[in-house]
Amino acid sequence: MARIIDLPLTAGEGSCDPRAVHGTWGALDAAQRRGLAYTPEVAAETAPLYERVKHVIPAVEWPAYAPLISAINKMKRAKNAVILAHNYMTSEIFHCVGDFRGDSLQLAREAAETDAEIIVQAGVHFMAETSKVLAPEKKVLIPDMRAGCSLAASITGADVRLIKQRYPGVPVVTYVNTSADVKAESDICCTSSNAAAVVEWAAREWKTDRVILLPDEYLAKNVAAQTGIHIIAWHGRCEVHERFTAEDIAELREAHPGVIVLAHPECPPEVMAAADFAGSTAALQDYVVEKQPRKVVLLTECSMSDNVAQYAPNVDFVRPCNLCPHMKRITLEGIYDALAEMKHEVTIPENVQVRAKLAIQRMLDLPKEKPRAFATGRPPVAVELV
Ligand code: SF4
After folding, report:
1. Residue 137, number of CB atoms within 10 A of its CB
2. Domains (ranges, CATH) in the chain?
3. Dmax over Cα atoms in the chain, in whole Å?
4. 105, 190, 238: which to mutate for ligand 1, most atoms within 8 A of CB?
């Protein structure tokens, strides 16, 4: 069962607040070890940035973060670098050093279009690979090479080749949460923003009623329920979203009468059925900002609520805390070191890069549409598991 914890905003030791995990005082120590101090100049320069995160970072803790933030932003300008920050980054990264912020699809589009020479991926390894695939001439850095993903680790390019042998002529759609090697074996990529639309497109193009959708079993089931297309799926799971259950939702509704429950489509179908609304992180954010519910809970990674709260100050967020340990490997000090020392560079063999780009580009070339919501309240639909 997922751990449902209604966290206070300034959770302390022993909580699963990501800042408690990294340690504010660890950040202070990290800044001092790099010769960075909280001077009056740094205080003045970072004051507007603090306004964006004051709902999650107490004023007393800001001097721990501000020197690193100031130094990172100066280095970005000096080196013509941009930081792509995923929605699951902690707020001091997302709101204070991120140049482009969003879900995988939004970040992939920015990677393809930026004029910067250097991209620092504040996200996990498959996201940095996607940036490198789309912008092979740029230097792509990831602050921590260990920032992986349970979904991406669940499948290899060799697995996809075997699946294609077993289902000849069936189009292969892969979620962007995969390695470049897997993407290279695919016909087209998708994200949780466009998965249903891409699967429908593949069925139309291949004139078939069967589509292979890899590697997230739950996303595949949720897309099957959405589209009515026969989905052939893999048994990958997101270790964050698979932990939410329908019982968690019942408990939340009991503890917080009237709360609106929003779920990410990597959650099990039973969770989607019990939620009020479901969609990608971009769709969840749009829902909160547009509808301004009185009280809301986002069944997704822990930091998302902190980041969306900046755009919806009047909404009361109930905060279940399922941390992604891979996303949380990305820290301000890691970003600082990556830019200062130009490490850790992501590289991809050219033959993989070229084929992976075809699959991603096909997705990017589809008509741009608003992130599509997933239906809720429906009974689960079976898929064919490989
Ligand atoms: S939240 Fe899930 S899908 Fe995203 S990086 Fe973490 S493990 Fe992978």
Report:
1. 6
2. 18-147+327-341 (3.40.50.10800)
3. 65
4. 238
| Span from the CA of 322 to the centroid of ligand 1 (angstroms) | 11
Helices (H), the chain: 18-22, 24-33, 40-53, 62-79, 91-94, 104-113, 125-134, 157-166, 180-184, 195-205, 217-227, 246-255, 269-274, 281-291, 303-309, 332-341, 350-365
* Cα–Cα nearest to 121, from 365, 327, 341: 327
Distance 301 CA to ligand 1 centre (A): 8
**CA of residue 324 to ligand 1 center, whole Å:** 6
Backbone angles phi, psi at 140, to 5 degrees: -110, 125
Tokens of 263: 């779920």
How confident is the model over 135-167, as pLDDT tens digits? 999 999 999 999 999 999 999 999 999 999 999
The pLDDT value given to residue 378: 81
For residue 143, give the 3-state DSSP assignment.
coil
Are residues 146 and 123 in contact, defined by beta-carbon separation less than 8 angstroms? no
Q: Which atom of ligand 1 is nearest to the CA of 300?
A: 1
